[in-house]
């Protein structure tokens, strides 16, 4: 019989309501099952997680704060990469951070840990080890996918794992440390947030808020030559002022070098005497081969150094350069694109090649930063030492192209890029090739900036208001964030100009439609602070995950599923603001077509005090993996002995692991399936 005709993809679920319950809510007809939580052993020999603060050996257990993740298929025998493998595969994921009330990672220690300096080595060792990456094998069984605890593919990467520095900064003087006199290596990766996967089957991870793990002495500016010294300008631009304390005090863990490296003060005569340059070795897109532990992990410096989130490839075409889209998640930071020097060869998708292929495409190319114009056009500006705005920049004297990529924020300042409302993830629509960016929120977006760290409203970041519930007067920033999208001119990955609009403005349903709820979100669609963003290659559906502080009085964080249109499908809406002196300012918001009940629905709500972040699926679209990050992260150390005061007990309260209804909360991966075995979130058979 002939195959049935494909039918268009539609949303295959009923919207779930907002929720404050300490559980994962999914639509009727779907099941969410926990498969991998903080502390779960990954080597077949480490004991089960007791979750009472006495566990050790965290380099053989799941890390904390599960974040971005990607799925990599295996063949049925589990011996080789199979991009179509749905029954068996690897999940590679980030462990971004750890829940802490003071210096110590509270839930990791029996008494909540030591919040004074010096920190005990035994506590520091646990806390370092629960950062980094995981790779775990999953297999589909009678009750769905489960982690294979003894798989030989399983591994942890921690902030101590040796890592190679590749690209323009390899061997540069900026990378020389006591650990690597030739500037070609560093140890580990940290604060890994968003992810990506490459056309050659490897994992990309972004290093985000890495600066805060390091400390610098109050006198360090003087030691380095004063406020105008190049390293001081750089350190300040990346958020490490002299005298800043480190997040966890790891530098006090003991005499060993693995502790000393977290203090980046200049103390010796030469770059190899201390860790003055250690911060230059963090802040990159990092590539790992999930299938091959013997391959070195590579920091791809050509893609720039900043607070990275995800890395998304533009549509891949034979004979054309590859584009990688990226964002810098901090208030007023920028949107970037890397374009490879090499043109794509389809032969490089051969499942046997993998990370050595990355050496071809990700170590040489052009790094661009975005400028958004009020008329709905935009430009990519190359960050090149040949650009006179960069070469002659008064604030910082760039030495060479390596210096430009290492100090990409300063180079982007020099060329006048557009300061955005905290770019989090980006994702590329698998059919249109349009590039979507979540701009999560920005408390510093002001009608009348009062300091140099604040930004005025502009067309690409057009909202600033005091209180979405009370009204729209005043100027407290972009509270709920928005999702911007762009289309490259000619749909070319190497284009230097584009058009753009805003797919969705986050808002609370019922808020002022003219000034706040610009996308007219209903109660089944409303959200705040978009963060994770992903398109299913199977269905073309858009998944939006939230990390919200502004709407958590009404609902826990959530995930929505949308069917977006394309750039320019909506309208231009003038936003009229009145300044303190009575004068008015009009900013034209470019609002995409308003969603309908058929094109945007809430699919999932998480437990208390979590963020929903990280998503991937099996190639057949029938198992969707989602990460629940830091349930119950609001913890007071004094309450550690009183579980009744924990705001969350998930997933123990869902029957997973030790502790039950009194369990310490744990970040965890859930797998979501449709009870009838169909595509998750979708009806129909054809990609959009
Ligand atoms: Fe780790 Fe920008 O969220
Ligand atoms: Ca994020
Ligand atoms: Ca976030
Ligand atoms: Ca978080």
TrEMBL record:
Superkingdom of this protein's organism: Bacteria
Query: Per the UniProt record, which residue ranges are transmembrane?
Result: none
Xref: InterPro entries: PhoX (IPR008557), TAT_signal (IPR006311)
Q: Which residues form a coiled coil?
A: none
- Name of protein: PhoX family phosphatase
* Species of origin: Ramlibacter rhizophilus
